[in-house]
Amino acid sequence: MFNRALITPVGDDWFVAAEGYNVLGLPRPGPVTVADPEIEAAVTTIETKARAEAKTPRTRDNSKQATVISMLKRPEGATIPQIIEVTGWQAHTVRGTFAGAFKKILGLNLVSDKGEGDRVYRIAG
Fold first, then answer.
1. For labeling, which of 31, 78, 95, 108 is most exposed (least CB within 10 Å)?
2. Residues 6+ apart with CB under 8 A from 111
3. What are the φ/ψ torsions at residue 25 (nearest 5 degrees)?
4. If you compute the radius of gyration of the chain from its CA atoms, what whole number of angstroms results?
């Protein structure tokens, strides 16, 4: 049974492996859990805090992304050529950042106006 990986040694004992249960047609036993209310409460608190932190995207203050956000928050907004000049990004990178990082991840509401010349982008409200 060992050669066919149906049993497995653990220390001095032998246990039926997952494949062994399959061959025998028996359900695999689940993990044995001992519920400790204090541990469960601590785990729940940690998981809740981790989920809250994971849902709060952050931007470093000295990053190009932060620079672009500050440009978009100005009353006059910013054009793609202005952002390219400041960041060194290509136009498709700027547009991709608008759609991905700013709209989807950070949840910013970007609006654009087409006046004379280039389209102007701003962060609304």
1. 31
2. 121, 122, 123, 124
3. 75, 25
4. 28
> What is the chain's pLDDT, residue by residue, as a tens digit (125 residues)?
778 888 888 888 888 888 888 888 888 887 777 778 888 888 889 888 888 776 656 667 889 999 999 999 999 999 999 999 999 999 999 999 999 988 888 889 999 999 788 999 999 87
4: left (phi over 0), alpha (psi -120 to 50) or beta: alpha
The 8-class DSSP code of residue 11 comes to: T
User: For strand 119-123 and strand 110-114, is the pairing parallel, antiparallel, or unpaired?
Assistant: antiparallel
* Alpha carbon distance 78, 122 (integer Å): 7
* Extended beta strands in 1-125, E state: 7-10, 13-16, 78-79, 110-114, 119-123
What CA–CA distance (Å, rounded) separates 83 from 14?
A: 66
Other Cβ atoms within 10 Å of 77 Cβ, number: 19
